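RETRY 2/3 - previous attempt timed out on the joint model. Re-submitting the same 1466-residue input unchanged.
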Amino acid sequence: GIVKDKATDLPIGGVSILIENTNKGTITDFDGNYNLQLDDNDPKNIVISYLGYKTQILAIPLNGRLDVVLEEDVTSLTAVNLTVGYGSMKKDDMTGSADLVTTKDFNPGPVQSPQQLITGKVAGVTVTSGSGAPGDKQNIVIRGVGSLSLSSAPLIVLDGIPLSDSTVGGARDVLNTINPNDVESMVVLKDASATSIYGSRGANGVILITTKRGKNGAFKFSYNTMTSVATPFQKADVLGADEFRQLVTSLTKSADIAKLGSANTDWQDQIYQTAFGQQHDFSALGSFLNTPMRFSVGYSDQDGILKTDNFKRTTASLNLSPSFFEDHLKIEINGRGNYTENFFANRGAISSASDFDPTQSVYDPNSIFDGYYAWTGTNGYQLNLVPTNPVALLNLVSDSAEVRRFIGNTKVDYKLHFFPDVTATLNAGVDMANSNGRKVTSASIPTSDTSFDGSRTEYINESTNTLLDFYLTYQKDFDKHGINLVGGYSFQKFDVDNYNYDSEKEQNGNDFEFIDKNRNTLLSYFGRLNYDFDGKYLLTATLRADASSKLNPDNRWGLFSSFAAAWNIHKESFLEGNQNINELKLRLGYGEVGNVNGLGDYLFLTRYSGSQSTANYQFGSQYYQTYRPNPVNTNLRWEVGRTYNAGIDYAFFNRKISGSLNVYLKETQDLIANTVVDPFTNFGNRIDANIGDMENKGIEFSINWKTVSTETLKVNLGYNIAYNNNQVTRLPDQQFVGGISGGTGNNVQTHIEGAAPFSYLVYQQLYDTNGKPIEGAYVDRDHNGVINDKDKYLYKNPYANVTMGFNTSIQYRSIDFNMVTRASLGNYVYNNVSSSKGYANRLNETSILNNINRGYFTTEFKEMTQSNLLSDHYVENASFFKIDNITLGYTLPKVFEKVKIRLYSSVQNVLTITDYSGIDPEVNLGIDNNLYPRPRTYVFGLNVNF
Amino acid sequence: CTNELDQSPIDPDSFTEKNVFSNVENVKSALAKVYASLVLTGQSGPAGDADIQGIDEGTSQFSRMLFYMNELTTDHAVVGWGDPGLPDLHEMSWSSSNTLTEAMYYRLAQVVSFSNSFIVNATPLNDDVEVQYYIAEARFLRAYAYYNLLDLYGAVPITTTISTELPLQMTRKQVFEFVEGELLDVQNLLKDSGANEYGRVDKVAAWALLSRLYLNAEVYINENKYNECVTFSEKVINSSYIINTIDANSNGTAYDELFLADNDSNGAQNEFIFALNFDGLNSQTYAGTTFLIHASIGGTMDPADFGVNGGWFGLRTTKTLVQKFSSSVTGSDSGGDPIAWSDTRAMFYTDGQNLEITTIANEFTDGYAVTKFKNVDSNGAPGSDATGNFTDTDLPMIRLAEIYLNYAEATVRGGAGSIGTAVDLMNELRERAYGNQSGNIVSGDLDISFIMNERSRELYWEGFRRTDLIRNNQFTESSYLWPFKGGVAQGIGVGKFRDNFPFPTNIILTNPNIEQNNKY
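RETRY 2/3 succeeded.
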C-alpha cells in the first residue's frame, strides 16, 4: 500500500507499519510505499503511526493492499516524548523549560562537534568556538555564567550517560569524538526545576543528546558525503613591507634602519592556506532477528587553515534495542568507538607572523637553522626575546596526538509482571578516553640556546568515567489523576591517570617524568513526583541528595529540591477545540542545584607536594627534594544555584505560529571562588572557598512561523532572542583575572561585587580635541594627583546583554534553502593585539625590527607601559551580526526506485557586521590575543538514502 | 558504594603529614622547603605549581620582590618594563592594591606559616639532635621573615601556630620585640659558627640579624639600640666568617667573586652568613640571580659575558648611584661622563648607555647598566645550565661586609664601639675594592654621610637601600633627590607615609583585625 498525508495528498516516507501486538513490521519508503509479509497466524490488524500524525489501527483487507491517509495531529507535536532524565515525558506534560532541536533543525555544514548543531537555535544558549581550528573547543553557556572558579559549562548527557567535562590531553574538545551525524535530537534543559533531577552536575543547565536508534522494519541505508574548502580571509592588521620600511626610516635610528631587509614577505600568507576537508558517513537502520538496530561508521578529515593543522576522525556506533516478554523487558545497548588523530599546528606562528619584520625573507642560505631566517647575535644563534621565524615554528615543531574514546551503556527496563505499573531500570555505562601524544621540537629550530638539542614531550592520558543508575518508576492513572513517581540511586566514578615525560633531545634521553592521578566519586539518591489532573494541571517535585568525594565528610551531602507547576490553559473547556489557540501553557518553577564541577580533588586534606627535580634545594653539596604543605580548606560546601522560572508555551492558528517565553532569575549562592586567604592562617594566599553570590536574570523569547505552507512551497522562519544580566552580588575580595600579553602578569579583568564577572578594569583614556588618545594621560579618578592602580575603573564586560538567532528555511519543490544568522549586542572585547603590538618603540625594541599593529596609527603611542596597556581605548564594542551559514539543496528526480539523492552546497561564516577593529568580534572570554582566524568554508555535499 | 566517597590522594607526588614527618631524612626535605620558599617560587621549577597565586610566578620570589621594594624604589635602580605595579615603585606612587607589595606580604606570611607548621610537626621527632637544629633554623627563618615584615610593613600580626583564626595586629614595637626575642633565643640553639653545612644558617646569622635590627631600632621603635648593634656586630666580626680576599679570577679584586656562578666555593662563601642558593639545573626560577643577571642585560651588552643566553632589557641605574663613585673616576667619555673607576665596585656598563635618564619605559639605553652579577665562574666559564637560561650564582642576604658597615655606623651614631676599629673595618673593605690602599680613609673621614655612601658602594642592588635611606631620613624627603623620584624627571619628595608599604587591600578586606597603615 501507500501512505499519504491527508492535507497535501503527498506520500509520507518513514511511517511505521506494525502488525498489532508483535514486533513485526516495516516502514514506508520515500514514496510512501510499503510492503509487509504476513503469516496466517499473525493478528489481522496493523498499526500505522508517524510522528505528528494520528495513529490508526486498521484491519488488513483481503485483497492485500491497504492505502492509508494519515491526518496531522495538531496536538501531537507537544506529545513527543522527551528524555528528561531517568525517564521520558511528553512535552505537554512538562513543567520545566526544555528546548528540543531535532535533525531537521540542525545546522548544516562541516560540523565537527555536536554543540555546533544548535548554535543560534535556542534562546539563551550561546556556543562560541574557541578558534577557527578544525574540531576546536566549543564553549557553551546557558543563561549566563553561573560560577567564578568552577565550571560554567552545562552537563552533557549522551544516551543517559552524564559525560565527564574534562578532556584528555590531545583532544581538542570534549564532544568532538562524537559523530554529529549520529545525533537524533538535542534537548536543552535550562531551569533548575528541569535540571535538578541531574543534581549537582546540572547546575549550569543540561544538554541531553539522544543518538539515532534502530527501528522495526526492513533496513534502510544512508550515505552522506561532503567536501569542504576553507579559506583564510581574516588576517591580523599589520604593516606591509613598504609601509614598514617607511615607518622604520622615519622613526628609528640609523643603526636600526640598517637592519631593514630587501624582501617583501607577507608572513601571514606564509602560514595560512586554503584547507580542504572531507567527510563520509554511512548508516544502516532496521531490525534483524526481531531486534531493532542501527549501525554507523563515519570518517572525516579536515585540514586547518593554519598550515600543518589537521583533524581526522573515525567513528563507529552500534545501537541495539530488543524487547522481550511482550515488551515487559526492554534492553538498550549503545556502543560508540571513536578514534581521532590530531595534528596541532604550532599556534605560536600566528603571533610571530604578525611580529616578524616583513622585509626579511623566509629563508636565509647562511642560517644554521635549517636555512630559516632568524634574528641572530654575534655567535650566530638567535637573540633572546625576539620572534621566531613563523614558518620554522610550523615546520620544525611536530605536535600530534591520537585519542581513542569508547562510550557505551546498557539500559534494562523491566516492567514488573506482577505489578506492571512499576518499571525497574538499571543503566550501566562507561566513558573511557585515552590519548597518546607527543610534541617534538627539532634541534634546528632557531634558538638562543647554543646547546639546544631539540626537545620531546610525550604523554599518555587516560580518563575513565563509570556510571551505575538504578531506579524504579511507578506510573498510574486513576480516573483524571495521573501519577508518575521515580526513585533511584546513581553512582559515578571519575578516574584520571596522566603520565608524561620531557626530554631535552629530539629523541629520548635526559628524561623528566611526571605522573598525575586523581579520582573522585559522586553518589546520589533521587526522587521525582509528577502529578497531573486531567492533563490541565501539572505538578512536579524533585528531591535529590548528592555527595561528592571532593568535600569533607561533614559537608559532603547536599540536599536539593525543586517544585514546578504548569497549567495547560488550552485544555480548559473555554478554549478546547479552538483552532486559533492550539497551545497555551503557563509554567512556574523553582529549583536548587548544587555544583562542585571543576573543583579540585582532596582540597579538604592537608597534602604535601614534592618538588620536581628542577625545584630542589641545596644544603652542603646535595640537592634535596622539598615538601610543601598545600593550601587547604576544610570548610568547602556545595555551591548552590537557585532558579526561578516563569514561562509560557504557545501555539496559534493551527500551529502556524508557536514558541515560548521565559523569564528567569538564577541566583548562585555560596559561590565557590578562588579567593584570598590570609597566608598567616593557611599555606598559600588563595584557596577555593564558598564566599560569594551571583545573579543572572533574563528573558527569553522564541517564535517559529510557518509563513507559507503549501504543497510546493514551505517557508519557515525561526527567531529567538534572549536578554541576560549577570552580576556578582556578594564577593568580599576583589579578584583580578584576564591575563593579557604585554608586560608580565598584567590582568585586564576583575570579579568585583556589584559588577558582571570578568568586567574590564582599565584606566580612562584622555583624548585630545581631534579624538586622538593622549599618551599617558588618564583620568585621575580618585583626585589624589597620582595615577596608579586606584585610578582604574570598571568598564563593560565581555558578555552580550542580548543574543539573537534568526533562521530561515524554504522548501520549493525539490529545492531547499536554509540560512542561519546570529546577533550579539553589548559584548565588549579587549583588543590585546592592538594594545601589545601597536606602539612605536616596538619597531626597534630588543635590538631588532618588529612589525607593529596598525592600531598604532590610531593612538600613535610611543611606549607600552602598564597604563597604556590597560587603557579603556582598547576595550571595544564587539556587538555583531553574523550570517553563519547559507545552504542550498536540490533533491534529484527519481533515478532509481527507492533511492533518494540530495545534492547541496553551503557556505559557512558568510558575513560579519561589526564595529570591532580586530579580526573577529566573537572572542570567548573577551580578550582578543592572536585568535586563530575562523575561515570561510564552502561545502559541497551529497546525501543518498536507500 | 558509600565507602567510595572517601578518597585520598593517589598521586605519587602527593604526601600526607604522616609521610613527611615519618623520619629525619624526610624532615630535612620539609626544612628544605622553608629555606626554598625564600629562594624559589614553587614545586615545579622554574615555574608551575606556584607558592603564591595572583602574580606572575617568576615575579613572586622573595629576593626579586625585595629588589623591587628596596632598590627599585630608590636611586639605585630603574626598570623599563610595564609589569603590573612595577613602574609605580620607582615613581613612588604605589597603592595598597600594588601587585608587588601585596605579593611580598603573602610571601613573607607564607614563610611564617611554613615555619610554624614545620616547627609543630617536627617537634615530636626532636629527640634527634639534628632535628633540634632544624627547628632552630626554622625559627631563624621565621624571625627573618618577620624582620622583613617589620621593615616593609611595620605593625603586622604575629602567628606562631597553625590556625585558621584570623590573627590580631601587633604594634611595630611588639613585632620588633618578637624578632629580637626569637633571635636571642635561637642564638643558643643554632650550630656553632661555621659548623653547619653550606646553605644552612648557624648562630652567626642570628647575631648578624640582631645587628641589623638594632641598627634600625630608632626607625622601628623610636628608641636607639646602637650599643646592642655594636655588641652583636662584634660577635659576628669575631666569628669564623671572614671578608673574602681570594681573587680567584685574578682581575685585581676579590669583590667581584662574591657575585659569580661559583660563589659557593671560590672563597666568597666564607663571607656569606646567609645566602640564597640557586642552581641552573637543580634550583631553577625566573627570579633570584637569574632575574638580576638577565634583567640587567640589554643594549650592546654581550650576554655571553654574563654566562647567559640573552638580556631582558630591564634594569639600569640612575646617575645618583654612579656619582657615589666620583672620587675614584679614572676615565670619562667625550661628554664628560665617567666610564672607568679605580674602585672596582663601580661595575657599570657604559657603552651606548646614557648616564642621564630621559625615558624609563622600554628604553634600555637610558641609565648605566650594572654588571655586578654574573653567571660565569672564576675561570670565566658559564654556569651549569648549558641553555643559558638559569644561573648558578648564589645571592647573599647577609654577608660580613654589611656587619662591618653596621658596626661603623652604630659607633658613629653613638654606640659603644671604637672609631679606630670602625676605620680599620672600612679600610679592609676599601682595600679589597681598590686592590690596594689608595682608597683608604682616616678617622676624620668617617661620618654618617661617608658611611651611607660606602653602604651604597659596597651593597648596592643587594636589597638594603630603602632601609638605609629611611634610617637617614632621605627616602621620602625632598632633601635627597634622584632622577624620577616621585615620577618627576628631576625628582621630588613624596609623603612620609611611604616609608612603610601599605597592607594589601585584600588583607584589609579579609582580616578586619588589621588597620591600614596611615594615609593609604
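The mean pLDDT of chain A is 89. Closing ticket.
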